[in-house]
Amino acid sequence: LPWRFLQFLLLLLLGVSSAAQAQVNITLGSSLTPQGPNSSWLSPSGDFAFGFQPVEGNTSSYLLAVWFDKIPEKTVAWYAKSSQDTPVQVPSSSVLRLTADGLLSLRTPSDGEVWSPRVPGAAYARMLDTGDFRLFGADGKAKWETFDVPADTILPTQVLLVGQQDKVLRSRLIATDYANGRFLLAVQSDGNLVFYPIAEPTTKRYDAYWASNTVGNGSRLVFNETGRIYFTTTNGTQVNITSAGGVSMGDFFNRATLDPDGVFRQYLYPKSRKARSVWSLQWTVVSSIPQNICQAIKETNAGSGACGFNSYCSFDGTQNQTTVCQCPEHYEFFDKERKYKGCRPDFEPQSCYLDEAAAVAKFEMTPINGVDWPLADYEEYSPIDENECRTLCVIDCFCATAVFRASTNTCWKKKLPLSNGNMAADVDRTVLIKVPRSNNSESQLSSGSTKWKEDKKYWILGSSLFFGGSVLVNILLGNFHLQ
Ligand SMILES: *[C@@H]1O[C@H](CO)[C@@H](O)[C@H](O)[C@H]1NC(C)=O
Ligand SMILES: *[C@@H]1O[C@H](CO)[C@@H](O)[C@H](O)[C@H]1NC(C)=O
Ligand SMILES: *[C@@H]1O[C@H](CO)[C@@H](O)[C@H](O)[C@H]1NC(C)=O
Ligand SMILES: *[C@@H]1O[C@H](CO)[C@@H](O)[C@H](O)[C@H]1NC(C)=O
Ligand SMILES: *[C@@H]1O[C@H](CO)[C@@H](O)[C@H](O)[C@H]1NC(C)=O
Ligand SMILES: *[C@@H]1O[C@H](CO)[C@@H](O)[C@H](O)[C@H]1NC(C)=O
Ligand SMILES: *[C@@H]1O[C@H](CO)[C@@H](O)[C@H](O)[C@H]1NC(C)=O
Ligand SMILES: *[C@@H]1O[C@H](CO)[C@@H](O)[C@H](O)[C@H]1NC(C)=O
Ligand SMILES: *[C@@H]1O[C@H](CO)[C@@H](O)[C@H](O)[C@H]1NC(C)=O
């Protein structure tokens, strides 16, 4: 009871302080610049800001964005995209103006207008406490809002209606690069809600990795203020998208983002004093879909799968819900920050002019445990034994890996690039990868294991964005329910 009373007092205080800051209309003629005092417009509560946000790692480039302004991370919830659907990044000399004739327009000295919603006749604008930035007509009706043109994130109270055109969320390339990434979520005009891998840099959609299967019946994607995210059908049925619920908007900041790894994750950040006393001050994953991205994107018509070509994917669903991409032994990432680019061999590829004896002297097959590339087969032998299988791959300059299944005495040869690599525990199968023969097998073993440790260090760095602890979180959510 005393706790309830304190909570009541706290709510009263919060209510008073937010009432003191009257909702401000952004009037015609107002402007923002990336530097200086007027670089953003705040919502009445101060929770959200609209304006210029510096791009990480580039002090001379800014996004036009909406972000969570009360947390140190300043997490971006929306960013402006050009008519070519690429994020707008502008220099510090740019100006965003709500012009006297009611047009919102972003200009740079060199290129003139680089972005505008092109909706004329606004009377004023507002940054709302929900995170929605709106242009209003003189009649007080919204003429344009950021909630209608999402980037990679949706917020509580945001609704995406099935309409004439697909409404999409597009993942970023990596956490710090807002360029269009490899995954897309579409609220399709046919009533289906679908997740696709994308053939960057085009807009080609590969086979879906999740769908609501509501063609003809889908109606709206809703991020309810209670924290639930669901897709409704015309007959009123709700298809749950995430499993959170009972989250108070007063206690938590809440967002759902199509992350660069293709997983749609719902995150909470403690907001009220009560929540901050129990939760650590960071975004915590409370729900995600699909459950295991590596399994979900397993067999596509083309493309590399969840990770890049020649790499393999594993998903830590129990703790931090992170997607981990790794290179096999004797392969290395093209770019450790951008693992989606895949892995390349760290050795000279096998010349197709080598004779068989030279090939056997230079290369050998080494087993790689618990990993499978289900595609890229180009030859199948049966019956055969494992040694023959190894040799047939070693002497074939096209062959990169071989798979041997003992129970059926079958051997498959696979070529580069390997795709849809996955951690898979199939006891009946030996996956063999072609590597340069070393004179001393001991030295090869030890160099292999240090390389693996290096890889592991990099993925921890790369994936530290996606921390979680869903089990703990669910328990705590339960707590909040009960009080
Ligand atoms: C904002 O503008 C609308 C429409 O002109 C008006 O009704 C409202 O009172 C204004 N609010 C403030 C706080 O000025
Ligand atoms: C910032 O905006 C306020 C309110 O619109 C205005 O009074 C002030 O002059 C602006 N400051 C600068 C440096 O533009
Ligand atoms: C920073 O951004 C500017 C403008 O967008 C761009 O021209 C420049 O190449 C970027 N610099 C780096 C280091 O990415
Ligand atoms: C759409 O809804 C109708 C009526 O409820 C139902 O008969 C039909 O099977 C539904 N279609 C799908 C694809 O679920
Ligand atoms: C959220 O759920 C409540 C209760 O089910 C409902 O009344 C409300 O309209 C929903 N919010 C949105 C944005 O659909
Ligand atoms: C409503 O539509 C969904 C999806 O199409 C279907 O599975 C369900 O059976 C329908 N329910 C009713 C009551 O018609
Ligand atoms: C959807 O989620 C709500 C709230 O978490 C739950 O009550 C309901 O049973 C779920 N529906 C399905 C079909 O799982
Ligand atoms: C989960 O993330 C935390 C913090 O980022 C880290 O300390 C921990 O090692 C991670 N756990 C696993 C199993 O990766
Ligand atoms: C293995 O030994 C041969 C002959 O001694 C030598 O030419 C070759 O460079 C060695 N290879 C490696 C990987 O050390």
TrEMBL record:
EC number: 2.7.11.1
One term under GO cellular component: membrane
Keyword Magnesium listed: no
Alphabetical keyword list: Membrane, Receptor, Signal, Transmembrane, Transmembrane helix
Any single GO BP term: response to other organism
Main location: membrane
Residues of the signal peptide: 1-22
Residues in coiled coil: none
Enzyme class: transferase
Reactions the enzyme catalyzes: L-threonyl-[protein] + ATP = O-phospho-L-threonyl-[protein] + ADP + H(+); L-seryl-[protein] + ATP = O-phospho-L-seryl-[protein] + ADP + H(+)
Pfam families: B_lectin
Residues that span the membrane, as ranges: 458-477
Membrane topology, from the record: Single-pass type I membrane protein
SUPFAM superfamilies named in the record: alpha-D-mannose-specific plant lectins
GO molecular function list: protein serine/threonine kinase activity
Cellular compartment(s): Membrane
UniProt protein name: non-specific serine/threonine protein kinase
